[in-house]
């Protein structure tokens, strides 16, 4: 794998301060008043120019949320969150709706440039950034600031736009599908998101269309004390295909910040959705100060026969990760896949996994999870595989491997299996291993430094999952993993 | 080239090397023989820089450099290579990937450019062919599921590619069948050069028929107790270690 050397270079080039996206952007912001109330929700809805039904939906969710309690079953611990000490809306002034990149605040453009995210279509098309023809929706705090390649995608009939715009322009489509996979009261954080979500991406691929390029959204939390509540909805109509990638970063701050997103995927007959995430929210410092609380609900509905949904995630950031991208295998012969690399270092806490709910006949699912724990972190895989009474011929294969670096971290595997159909076949494998001192010495004897040796062994460990990512992202992800583990040895 | 003076080493309060002295010159092949548990592998680990061993006294100088002050990877870059008695398995990392990472790491440490991929592949294929290592093996995870003999061949392949100046072979002959012993020995002999020295640890005279040593040292209870020419190995083969066995130093 040629990227190993790049990984090594990358690791070399970093100094003590390993989170390189921790800078802050100076830009004038407009915010909703602090705290959560009906008025704040009305404020958000008005800012977005939403129709009445959307406001009603939000207010209903808010009422229900007030009666709910925060879940506490995950293996994570944190101080109580004061939901009234958060800003629920923050947007750069002069926004929304810049018509072209020229209208976007140059400071914001610079931010994305620093993050290595290509927003300038012309330059990409002119070959300044070869081969990276990826359409990007860039979400900065509560609003989308730019979406690229919109026209080219429109030619193929693909709709790719901020969800706030889609609510105005394609209300029927949005209304038909929004909340149809993750119901309003699904869980505490999803309900909160329904009440206050600000932006995110909307994708619709028409029947029989293979989306002509990768789609991606980059989320950036910039503003202090601000939560990010994004909402993403992707619909792959009959016989269509789309590959979508999500990336995220945030500045370093001493206080924790909340990120509670909802992502819904719908695949109709014979459609396929590949959803990849490279999650790199600020993880907090070595003492566990600051960092993002990442409480996310992601669910895909294989609604049609022969449909396929694949979740691939590389999780390296966040102080706390609470995240279970799932598949509802409703259509006969549908397939769900979950490939995950979760890296934790320092004081990070990860509780992540998936749910594969087999409802249709001859549905199959596959789970490959690689957890890497270093420092004083805790890394838990939590997964549910269930077969409904009617799910004749359901099959699942699960493989969960954990790798420990050092002896102050923990790795845990919590599988739940429920089968109500006698013909279901579920297989589960799990291993836990450690990089031994003897292996380290062997590698060092061949000339590799401790960091290089760790990167090499870790790359070997996660290879099966990295192969699932689109090529260029795999290289990025590999670098990211090494950077996250910087300072974990010795 | 290598000079070890009065080396005293212990592990977990157990003394293993007791004032060991050893000199190996450039271009020399030095063999070390000695009873099980006399400290031969320990000596090789201490030269290569393995943690856990506490050096109480003495020094190890390689080409004027004080090895005891260097990290294992720095020692490797300085030319030290250890063919392990028990090579480690590295799951998930293809042998090819490992070889490239190791070669480039050392080149970098020596201020040389990285190898291009075609150049790398050419070198590996040539060296592997000499050692009769099939290409399939190079695609498999390093040493995982390799037979004992295959692991030893892989050690010699790494040695050939890394071009070290001071090579330690710790019982490379054990586990090799007759043909493999010949192939591996030829591989080692091909690396003989006026600028390179070898420390060959073995229990059997047989290996020394293939790799003919300049000097033979007898090690017992953590010390070199006798040094001679290649005929010393024959004498040991005939008489055993009875004459050299010491009661463990207090
Ligand atoms: N980690 C350790 N803890 C305690 N004792 C150790 C440790 N490592 C080595 N020893 C002891 O040190 C002594 C020397 O071991 P070493 O492996 O160097 O011997 P050797 O000469 O290579 O033997 P062999 O010919 O069997 O390979 C042995 O008695 C061994 O048990
Ligand atoms: Mg030994």
UniProtKB/TrEMBL annotation, chain A:
Record GO biological process: iron-sulfur cluster assembly
One Pfam family matching this protein: SufBD_N
Gene: sufB
Annotated ranges, domain SUF system FeS cluster assembly SufBD core: 219-461
Homology family: Belongs to the iron-sulfur cluster assembly SufBD family.
NCBIfam families in the record: PRK11814.1, sufB
Matching SUPFAM superfamilies: Stabilizer of iron transporter SufD (SSF101960)
InterPro entries: Fe-S_cluster_assembly_SufBD (IPR055346), SUF_FeS_clus_asmbl_SufB (IPR010231), SUF_FeS_clus_asmbl_SufBD_core (IPR000825), SUF_FeS_clus_asmbl_SufBD_sf (IPR037284), SufBD_N (IPR045595)
Residue span(s) of domain SUF system FeS cluster assembly SufBD N-terminal: 150-210
Protein name: Fe-S cluster assembly protein SufB
Transmembrane segments: none
Automatic annotation (TrEMBL), chain B:
Protein name: Fe-S cluster assembly ATPase SufC
SMART domains per UniProt: AAA
Record-level Gene Ontology MF annotations: ATP binding; ATP hydrolysis activity
Pfam families registered for this protein in UniProt: ABC_tran
Record carries keyword tRNA-binding: no
NCBIfam families according to UniProt: sufC
Gene that specifies this protein: sufC
Gene3D superfamilies listed in its UniProt record: P-loop containing nucleotide triphosphate hydrolases
InterPro entries attached to this UniProt entry: AAA+_ATPase (IPR003593), ABC_transporter-like_ATP-bd (IPR003439), ABC_transporter-like_CS (IPR017871), FeS-cluster_ATPase_SufC (IPR010230), P-loop_NTPase (IPR027417)
PROSITE patterns: ABC_TRANSPORTER_1, ABC_TRANSPORTER_2
Lineage, highest ranks first: Bacteria, Pseudomonadati, Pseudomonadota, Alphaproteobacteria, Hyphomicrobiales
Keywords (A to Z) from UniProt: ATP-binding, Nucleotide-binding
Family affiliation: Belongs to the ABC transporter superfamily. Ycf16 family.
